[in-house]
Structure prediction request, 330 residues.
Amino acid sequence: MEVNEFIERYSAGENRFTGANLAGIDLVGADLIGIILNDANLQKANFTFCYLSRADLSRANLEETNFSGANLNQSNLVGANLHRSEFHGAILQKSDMRNTKLTLANLLDANLIEVDLRFADLSSANLKGACLRGANMRLEKRAKPTILKGANLDKADLKGADLQGVDLRNASLVGANLREANLRGSNLTGADLTQANLKGAFLTEVDLTGGKLIGANLSNAKLERVKFIDADMSMVNLDSATMPDCKLIRANLIQANMTFARLNRSDLSRANLYGAIMRNASLMEVFFARTNMTSADLTNANLIGADLSSANIAGVNLEGAIMPDGQVYH
Prediction:
């Protein structure tokens, strides 16, 4: 179908083009609000600055299609192939993108507020600066997780997003806003969260093995049973974080702020806590085997039942701390 024929038919009131072959069509700036193009072949089509609000593009082939600056507000993209598609600056607010293939797609600065991305594959996609507030990527029972493996989410806004069970292995989230986001059970192995804001976030049972959290804000975060094995957490802010039963084996916590943090029963063996601030922290039954605690501040910390037998405590401030035997240190 030629572009002129398509426009004529659409202008005449026809809006259903199910299964149409429009590969390579150029529709820059066209008004296509409410159009139905489900199961269509739109590979390498140009929809730059188009109006596609409430469009039905479900199961369409949109590989390498250009949606730069387009408005796809409340559109239906369920099951669409969007491999290497271009969404730079596009508006996709409240769109249904379940089960879409967005591998290597460019969503730089895109508006993805309240988008449904359950079961979608965004492996190695570029979401730098994208707004994903309230987005739904929650893992459903007996379903595959949303995949963001290797994706670029630097400075993305994910405040309040539901990322429960998401695959974020080796993803880059440098400077991302994850405040109050739900990441419960997600896989963040090798992810880079340097300078990320995770204040009040839920990370229960998350795997952050080998991850980077340099200077990240995790104050008041819920971190029960998190794996921080070999993680770089230097200068991290864990003020008032809840993190019992965590695995912090060989973690780098140089100059970390753990004031009022609750780490009961956590494993900090071989971790580096040089200069860490742990004032008023709850460290009951914590395992400090061969832990470097040089110059750490444990003022008023609770160490009842903790194992300090092989830890390096040179220069540690223990003023007012409750020691493993229950005695107050003076």
Observations:
- The chain has a mean pLDDT of 96.
- The radius of gyration is 25 Å.
- The CA atoms of residues 99 and 120 lie 4 Å apart.
- The chain is about 5% helix and 0% strand.
